[in-house]
Amino acid sequence: MDTDARQHLMLDSQNPAQYGKLPRHIAIIMDGNGRWAQQRGLNRAEGHRAGVKALKPIVKECAAMGIEVLTVYAFSTENWSRPQVEVEALWDLLVEYLRSETAELKAEGVRIQTIGNVGALPIRAQKAIDAAMRETASETRMVLNLALNYGGRDELVRAVNRWLDEHRPLSPDSYMTANAIAAHLDTAGLPDPDLLIRSSGELRISNFLLWQLAYAEIYVTETLWPDFNPMELHKAIRAYQKRDRRFGGLRE
Ligand code: IPE
Ligand code: IPE
Ligand code: MG
């Protein structure tokens, strides 16, 4: 999106920053690329390309609004079960995205991080991720957290095993705590998501951030991910601002 369009958005009456508290951390399940492509008689890879394109203005808008962390579900541990050509196309798109966008993300103060078992990705993807993380390591405006080969159950298992490695040999009075689990998750150091957005209508979390979403507000839109835009983002945040977050307590 160009600067004029963005300025217009910031002035738009829907601009959530004018209304109330913004979520610190937004997590998005970017779903619906395949259906978007199918509706147009395109192949699924073209849907994913359109999905990557849709991400750019969302990242910009989140950074402009003052969101601290944006986590996007790009590839789940279950997505390996898709045809190999689709999986390969996704890694190609990731490499292309990181190569073409990192400089601009850096200029906007965005630090790129990942969650998920990145060590199992193809080497070309790992190299592109390392380079993008290194290049943006000193940025502090917003974290763009890419969930790659991510599964909530896999993350919990890896967290527990990491903890065990640190505590061997285990003494009889060693016990796990909630803080210890949180500190060994891939998201250690990040606040839990306040708002979970899922595009394209499915009412499930598909193994995303199982621990961290404990008290997230959930917003599902029928809009397919390639059609999701900053106006839709504003709508989601406005809906979030109207929620009554009780955390198990009573309403104020
Ligand atoms: C989400 O779009 C992107 C990934 C899972 C990588 P889908 O590819 O799941 O799109 P649908 O759900 O088939 O429409
Ligand atoms: C969730 O979408 C994963 C990503 C968006 C990366 P899926 O399309 O894989 O989820 P299901 O299969 O509909 O649950
Ligand atoms: Mg899907």
UniProtKB/TrEMBL annotation:
RNA-binding found in the keyword field: no
One Pfam entry name: Prenyltransf
The keyword tRNA-binding belongs to this UniProt entry's keyword annotation: no
Single Gene Ontology BP annotation: polyprenol biosynthetic process
UniProt-annotated binding residues for Mg(2+): 31, 217
Residues given in the record as substrate binding sites: 32-36, 44, 48, 76-78, 80, 82, 198, 204-206
Main enzyme class: transferase
UniProt cofactor note: Binds 2 magnesium ions per subunit.
GO molecular function, one term: magnesium ion binding
Family under the similarity heading: Belongs to the UPP synthase family.
Assembly: Homodimer.
PANTHER family for this protein: DEHYDRODOLICHYL DIPHOSPHATE SYNTHASE 2 (PTHR10291:SF0), DEHYDRODOLICHYL DIPHOSPHATE SYNTHASE FAMILY MEMBER (PTHR10291)
Protein name: Isoprenyl transferase
